[in-house]
Structure formats: structure tokens, C-alpha cells
Write a structure and sequence with these properties.
By secondary structure, the protein is an alpha+beta fold. The chain has five helices and 20 strands. Helix 1 packs across helix 3.
Length: 357
């Protein structure tokens, strides 16, 4: 969204088989076997559902059961040295002790959020675009590496704390949806950290960091701005940033079925395909997902067909609007339009992760 008012290796065979079997059972019964969460993480489940991850970002944990690489990189202020922060074990949570040791006695910034999908769709410091950021050269600020402490299954971890002026981006991606191609995405966020600035987004954006018109974005938005769209109550709301419009449903502004939602750990979902899209959400600590919108593209010119460009943003709008705040723990983008059953299985995996416990 812009401040302007004009208004993507073959995995272990047994794991893949188990994930497919679990998802198939869920499709047949409408529920998912309890054993699924123990063997499959979100991107395993998306792959089993035929909509694989093309980007997988998290500073708190692995998003594939076999992933054993770095989650993110930090840079310390004392000497500008960098250190990759990995997981405690394959498919496990972040090794926060590595960060704590490396950053002891100084401050650290998160410089890279690695892509676990193997497509190298990593996120780094956002460059200037339609708006210049507050850092040198017009870049956005990087997140303080210790500003969003959390726990995951009893282990310490850190999220990405986005203060106003902070932003991450990749304008040269691999496999992310373009044009009217179908995609899905989810993010786990802090539902209590938000504002009315533009725009705390995660998802698909313009590749030149500028506002290229209606339909050139498709991203999760979270906050309580009401300039372009809003739902019931006072917010915050999960909405879709489609450029020149934050949409809470089919109508341009108000849609009563999109509720205010502010769980401490929040699952937010946006997905889009040919003349269809949906908003879903839920508590990332327990329970299932609710569908807040599922239908045709907005009844405003320029959004059907979509003109997605395939960049990835975090914490900012498509034109580098950087007035929003929020906290990001994990998120993915997929190739293809995920089924509700796949997303329900992913939600079960998220709640089993143990955020805040």
C-alpha cells in the first residue's frame, strides 16, 4: 500500500509420505490427525497439499521438519561483525543463545532473514523507493535483534520488531507469483503491536519499490488504519494490501465480516487466485482458523485481473511507506492457491509450536 490516497532437493521420503497421508486424511474427514504436527511443519504441509512454499521466513523456528540451516543474521554495533543464527536441531527452534553470546555487551541488528525454501528469497534492508527511509542512502532501518523476545516450546527466541522506519525487502525473487498467478501466504504476528500508519505488510509487492497502480500488490496487512478499508469494531484488522487499497472484503471501504482481532500471537492469512481471494485468521496459540472473506476480487477497477510483480516486503508498503509498526515471527508464501484444509493443517502445526509457552 502507498501513503497516497489514489487511491516462492527432494525431502526425506518418509517425511513427505507422512505429510501427504496426514493431509489426505484431513481432506477426507475435515479434520487432521493429531500426529501430523509432530512430523510435519508448515512448508511440509503446503507441499503435501500441492501448493509448496516459495519463500519461508522465520527468526524463531524452522518451517520444514528437515531444515537445519540459518534462520537469520545479526550484526553487532561494536565491530560490525555478523553471525548467522540457526536452529537447535533440524526442524527445531532458534538457537537464541548464539545471538545472546555474540551480542553480549553491545547491540545487534537483524541484517538478513533467510529463506528456508531453497529459492534464496531472503529479506534484507529495504531500499528507497516512492519514499526514502531514515537510514543512510534512503534505506530503511534494520530491526533491533533483541526488541521482540519470545518463547517457543519453552525455548527463548526473538521476533522481528518493526518500529516506524524499519523495513525489509527483496525485489529480485525466484518463483513468487506474478500477474494473476495464484498464491497463498500466512504470517504469525504480535496482535497487540500495531498502529494506524502505512503499512505493516508481509507479502507480494512491486519490484521497483514504487506504487505501480491497482493490483500490483498482494500482501497481508495488519493494523488499524481506516483510510482505505476497515472492518468491524475499532481494529486492528487483517486486510489485504492490493495497492491503492487495503481491502477487508469485496467493498472498497467497510466490510462488517472482517472483525477486530488482537490475539497476542496471531495467525494472519491472505490468498488470491483468478477472480477470487480470501482473508483468514486465528489465535496462533490455540484453536482453528476463521474465514473473514472468501469471494471475488474487490468491486473496484484494476484488481481483476491482478498485476502482481513478485517482490517480497516485510514491515512496509509497496512504495516503501514506512510509518507502521508491528512484530513478525514467521511467514511463508506459496505457489498456488492453498485449500482451506491445507491451511487448517498449517494452523494446527502453528498452535503446536508453543508460542509463548
Amino acid at each position: 500500500m502507498s501513503l497516497r490516497k489514489h487511491p516462492r532437493t527432494l525431502r526425506n521420503a518418509l517425511l513427505a509420505t507422512g505429510a501427504t497421508a496426514a493431509l489426505s486424511a484431513g481432506l477426507l474427514t475435515g479434520t487432521a490427525p493429531a500426529a501430523r504436527a509432530a512430523t510435519s511443519l508448515p512448508c511440509d504441509l503446503y507441499a503435501a497439499g500441492g501448493t509448496p512454499c516459495v519463500a519461508a521466513h522465520s527468526t524463531t523456528r524452522a518451517l520444514y521438519a528437515s531444515y537445519n540451516g540459518p534462520l537469520y543474521q545479526v550484526r553487532r554495533a561494536s565491530d560490525n561483525a555478523t553471525r548467522d543464527i540457526g536452529v537447535l536441531n533440524a526442524g527445531g527452534v532458534a538457537n537464541a543463545a548464539t545471538q545472546d553470546s555474540f551480542c553480549a555487551g553491545t547491540t545487534c541488528l537483524i541484517t538478513v532473514i533467510y529463506d528456508q525454501s531453497g529459492r534464496n528469497n531472503r529479506l534484507t534492508q529495504a531500499p528507497p523507493g516512492g519514499f526514502s527511509g531514515p537510514a543512510a542512502g534512503g534505506y530503511d532501518n534494520l530491526a533491533n535483534a533483541t526488541a521482540a523476545p519470545t518463547t517457543v516450546a519453552g525455548h527463548k527466541a526473538y521476533g522481528v520488531y518493526v518500529a516506524s522506519g524499519t523495513g525489509y525487502r527483496n525485489n529480485n525473487t525466484n518463483g513468487v507469483a506474478k500477474g494473476d498467478q495464484a498464491e497463498g501466504m500466512y504470517a504469525v504476528l504480535d496482535g497487540t503491536h500495531y498502529n494506524g500508519g502505512c503499512c505493516f505488510d508481509y507479502g507480494n509487492a512491486e519490484t521497483n519499490s514504487r506504487d505501480n497502480g491497482n493490483g500490483t500488490m498482494e500482501a497481508i496487512y495488519f493494523g488499524n488504519i481506516k483510510v482505505w478499508g476497515y472492518g468491524s469494531g475499532n481494529g486492528p484488522w487483517i486486510m489485504a494490501d492490493l495497492e491503492n487499497g487495503l481491502f477487508s472484503g469485496v467493498n472498497q471501504h467497510y466490510n462488517a465480516n472482517d472483525p477486530s482481532i488482537s490475539n497476542r500471537y496471531l495467525t494472519a492469512i491472505i490468498k488470491g487466485g483468478t477472480n477470487r481471494w480470501a482473508i483468514r485468521g486465528g489465535n496462533a496459540q490455540s484453536g482453528g482458523l476463521s474465514t473473514f472473506y472468501n469471494g471475488v476480487r474487490p468491486n473496484v477497477a484494476g484488481y481483476n485481473p491482478m498485476k502482481k510483480e513478485g517482490a517480497i516486503i516485510l514491515g512496509i508498503g509497496g512504495d516503501n511507506s514506512h510509518g507502521a509498526v508491528g512484530t513478525f515471527y514467521e511467514g511463508v508464501m506459496t505457489s498456488g492457491y492453498p485449500s482451506d484444509a491445507t491451511e487448517n493443517a498449517v494452523q494446527t502445526s502453528i498452535t503446536a509450536a508453543g508460542y509463548g509457552r
